[in-house]
Amino acid sequence: MSNENGMAPGQIIKVLVSVVVFLVVAIWLLAKLATSGFNVDAEVMTKEAVAARLKPVGEAKASDAPPGMRTGEQVFKAICISCHGAGLAGSPKFGDAAAWAPRIAKGWDMLVDHALHGFNAMPAKGGSPDLTDDEVKRAVAYMGNAGGAKFTEPPVGGAAGASAAADPAVVGKKIYESVCVACHAAGVAGAPKFGDKAAWAVRLKPGLDEVVKIATKGLNAMPPKGGYTGSDAEFRAAIEYMVNNSK
After folding, report:
1. Which domains, ranges and CATH numbers included, belong to the chain?
2. pTM over 0.70
3. What pLDDT shows up at residue 240?
């Protein structure tokens, strides 16, 4: 028996089945095409792999040295180089004296503050919170010196560090070169210039102990201990170093 269009029921069923099959195949092909760029091996989608891809720019392992014992060079090569190696995001390129000059002119304390707490596109500690403050300071000194500065890296612990710490003159020199130099090298804001006998003689009239006491509390433009965060004994060593070189 045929319908009005002359097709038998069997033919109608075949047509309908063909249409359904075509639609199923078409939908499958479209779905395959839409997801073809997202066929990712499960192994690369583990939590560890995803976490590695989401790390901040500078987050990496700064050598196998124990925490707190990494040198400025080690920290630079593991962390800072990601931006400072090529001068990305406005960062001063390693070894580029012209780029570093205006930054060095702002002083050690300013550079360290930016490195520790972040500045513009750079996150705090370059994105590596596991770094100690001294390790960050060593990296700043290492990069700054490559750009023309004469900073002194905070000493790494161990026999050499203990030996240096045992000599007040060495400690005083290091603190002066990393902190006090910002003002006393050029006599900024009324600070007695390093090596200026006349300027220091006036201040030493009350005695060295009184000078240390005043400097520890801060005076005029100078913050307490000149901004130095170490011990009082270390700060005194820095004053003695300046005094002894200004007699």
Report:
1. 72-147 (1.10.760.10), 168-245 (1.10.760.10)
2. no
3. 92
